[in-house]
Specification:
By secondary structure, this protein is α/β, with parallel strands linked by helices. 31% of the residues lie in helices and 19% in strands. It contains seven helices and seven strands. The longest helix is centred in the C-terminal third of the chain and has 18 residues. The structure holds zinc ion.
C-alpha cells in the first residue's frame, strides 16, 4: 500500500541527505525538515598514503567533502632541509575549504628527510627528481634521481594520491629562492604570487620533477612551487600563505 511506504521512503531520504550509511537511517531520530540548511561538511579525515624508507607513515589530511569534484593538494615539506611550509599546513589544519573542494594537506611528503633535515629521503634520493616524466639518471649527491622513476616509497605514495585525487592544483613549499613558479596554468600561480608578495618567475625545468609530471599527465592540472625565504616563516607570512591557498581553492572550484 502506498500510504504505508511513505514513512520508510522519508526516512531513507533523510538518511541520504545526511550522508549516513544506508542502515543508519532506521533510527528515525535523524529526520529533519527539508528546509534546514545543508549539513556541515564531513569531518576532516586523515589517511596514511604510504610509508617512508624508514617505515614512517606518510599522512594526508582531507578537509571538505569526500568525493568533492575538485581537489587541491598542499605539501608542506618535500625537501627535508626546506621545512618552512609546515607552518602553512599548521594554519590550514582546521580550515574550511569552499563547497565542492577537497583540500588535501600533506605536512611531510618525505618524513625521514623532513625529520633529519636532509634534502633527500633516507636513501639520499631527491624526491623531486624521482617522478616519471623526463626522468633522467642523476648521480648520488644533491639531486640524486634514484635508481629509476618512482624508485622511492615516498614518491609512490604521493604519486598514487595524485593519480587518485587528480588535484586541479597542487602547491609545494620549498626554500629559499623567494619566487613562485608553475607548470600548467601560470595565471593561478601568478595570482598566488601576488597575494603573498613573491615574484612569479620560472625557476628551471628539472628532470623527474613532481609538478612537471603532474601538469603533463593529469589533464587540466597545475603544479605550483612556492620558494619561501630562508629561515622560519613568521606567523603573519604563514597566515598570508594559508589565505592565498584558500583564495586559490575558491578560484578553481
Ligand atoms: Zn626544494
Amino acid at each position: 500500500m502506498m500510504a504505508s511506504m511513505l514513512p520508510f521512503d522519508a526516512l531513507v531520504l533523510a538518511g541520504a541527505m545526511l550522508a549516513l550509511p544506508f542502515g543508519a537511517s532506521g533510527s528515525g531520530t535523524q529526520t529533519r525538515p527539508a528546509s534546514d540548511p545543508a549539513p556541515p561538511p564531513a569531518a576532516a579525515q586523515t589517511v596514511t598514503i604510504g610509508h617512508s624508507v624508514r617505515g614512517r607513515a606518510i599522512r594526508a589530511r582531507r578537509l571538505g567533502e569526500p568525493g568533492a569534484p575538485v581537489s587541491v593538494l598542499v605539501v608542506g615539506c618535500v625537501h627535508g632541509n626546506e621545512r618552512a611550509g609546515r607552518a602553512v599546513i599548521a594554519r590550514l589544519r582546521d580550515a574550511a575549504p569552499p563547497a565542492g573542494v577537497a583540500l588535501w594537506l600533506v605536512r611531510d611528503a618525505n618524513p625521514d628527510g623532513c625529520r633529519a633535515g636532509t634534502r633527500g629521503n633516507a636513501n639520499g634520493v631527491d624526491l623531486n627528481r624521482n617522478f616519471p616524466y623526463r626522468w633522467r639518471r642523476l648521480p648520488p649527491g644533491t639531486y640524486y634521481s634514484g635508481t629509476g622513476p618512482l624508485s622511492e616509497p615516498e614518491s609512490r605514495a604521493t604519486y598514487e594520491l595524485m593519480r587518485a585525487e587528480r588535484p586541479v592544483v597542487s602547491v609545494w613549499y620549498h626554500q629559499h629562492a623567494e619566487l613562485v613558479d608553475a607548470y600548467g596554468d601560470e595565471r593561478i600561480a601568478r595570482r598566488y604570487a601576488r597575494r603573498v608578495g613573491l615574484p612569479y618567475r620560472f625557476f628551471y625545468a628539472a628532470p623527474g620533477s613532481i609538478t612537471r609530471w603532474q601538469a603533463r599527465t593529469i589533464r587540466g592540472s597545475t603544479g605550483i612551487v612556492v620558494e619561501l625565504p630562508a629561515g622560519e616563516l613568521s606567523p603573519a607570512s604563514a597566515r598570508r600563505h594559508a589565505r592565498a591557498v584558500l583564495a586559490l581553492a575558491r578560484e578553481v572550484r
